[in-house]
């Protein structure tokens, strides 16, 4: 974890990094993915694990849902850069005025701003004694991946996948309770198998009665903006998949359906299916 705080120092060099590539001596040697799983032997006590994981995947795929569940299970913080951006937007922080247009048009925030926000969050976590992290929404560009690779070891990158028509529906169905902050989804997906493609069923994740009247929709979850975010994902973030694939760190995971089908399968592929705490991992 100490290494990650170097990200804060590195943040001041981001502008200069934007114009040059890291040399191999600045980039940590990539461990093979198989070694990743051997790093976490204490299956009986997942809280002893100190994972440094990344979630990749298109908008709406469920990165937040599964990253948050794994974070509860493994007792490591779930750090979503989208949340950091939204917190900054809601505050009167130094970047708030620059951010709203960028986010509402579905564009990426500059590497300089995003690294500054992430460094601040990691520094605050380290001061509280946090160990490890599950990053969600970072890195989103090759440049961000190179910067991260230069300051810490990422053990595993989980790449969540779902068909594109479902991604759009899931984004449009997202709702947040403006009181408790809970994330819900009113989309009900029921796509029949067709021409050799499997069908997919995803039940809505409905809020409790208390939250019903307090639901809001993210301002960037409109059809036009989601389509733009998907386009940007393919252009800017998809190459990050190859970045980690070539380093043996990428775990591809095709979501078979909603949480009841996908969560146990994800635990299985992560060799976490015998964790005692899995039943209590919060939604
Ligand atoms: N790593 C990042 N680099 C640049 N911009 C980011 C990053 N993470 C989040 N953002 C900004 O915050 C917005 C919301 O992010 P997020 O909640 O992760 O969205 P999504 O649901 O599309 O994955 C993004 O569209 C982008 O403007």
UniProtKB/TrEMBL annotation:
PANTHER family assigned to the protein according to its UniProt record, in alphabetical order: NUCLEOTIDE KINASE
Q: Which NCBIfam families match?
A: adk
Description of how the protein assembles with itself and partners: Monomer.
Q: What EC designation does it have?
A: 2.7.4.3
Q: Name one GO molecular function term.
A: AMP kinase activity
- Entry's SUPFAM superfamilies? P-loop containing nucleoside triphosphate hydrolases
Q: Which residues form a coiled coil?
A: none
Entry keyword set: Kinase, Nucleotide-binding, Transferase
What family name appears in the similarity comment?
Answer: Belongs to the adenylate kinase family.
Question: CDD domains in the record, alphabetically?
Answer: ADK
Name the InterPro entries on file: Adenyl_kin_sub, Adenylat/UMP-CMP_kin, Adenylat_kinase_CS, P-loop_NTPase
Q: Which reaction does it catalyse?
A: AMP + ATP = 2 ADP
What the entry lists under Pfam families is as follows: ADK (PF00406)
Can you name this protein? Answer: adenylate kinase
């Amino acid at each position: 974890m100490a290494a990650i705080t170097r990200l804060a120092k590195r943040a001041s060099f981001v502008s200069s990094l934007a114009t040059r590539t890291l040399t191999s001596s600045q980039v940590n040697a990539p461990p093979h993915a198989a070694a990743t799983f051997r790093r976490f032997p204490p299956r009986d006590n997942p809280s002893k694990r100190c994972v440094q994981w990344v979630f990749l995947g298109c908008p709406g795929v469920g990165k937040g849902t599964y990253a948050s569940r794994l974070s509860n299970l493994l007792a490591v913080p779930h750090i979503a850069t989208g949340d950091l951006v939204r917190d900054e937007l809601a505050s009167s922080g130094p970047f708030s005025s620059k951010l709203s247009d960028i986010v509402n048009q579905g564009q990426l925030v500059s590497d300089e701003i995003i690294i500054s926000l992430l460094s601040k969050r990691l520094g605050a976590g380290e001061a509280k004694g946090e160990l490890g992290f599950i990053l969600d929404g970072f890195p989103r560009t090759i440049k961000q991946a190179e910067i991260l690779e230069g300051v810490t070891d990422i053990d595993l990158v989980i790449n969540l996948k779902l068909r594109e028509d479902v991604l759009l529906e899931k984004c449009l169905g997202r709702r947040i309770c403006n009181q408790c902050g809970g994330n819900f989804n009113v989309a009900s997906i029921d796509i029949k198998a067709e021409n050799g493609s499997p069908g997919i069923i995803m039940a809505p994740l409905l809020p409790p009665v208390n939250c019903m009247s307090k639901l809001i929709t993210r301002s960037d979850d409109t059809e036009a903006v989601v389509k733009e975010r998907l386009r940007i994902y393919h252009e800017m973030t998809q190459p990050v998949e190859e970045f980690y694939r070539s380093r043996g760190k990428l775990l591809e995971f095709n979501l078979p359906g909603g949480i009841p089908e996908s969560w146990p399968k994800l635990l299985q592929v992560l060799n976490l299916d015998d964790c005692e705490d899995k039943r209590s991992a919060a939604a």
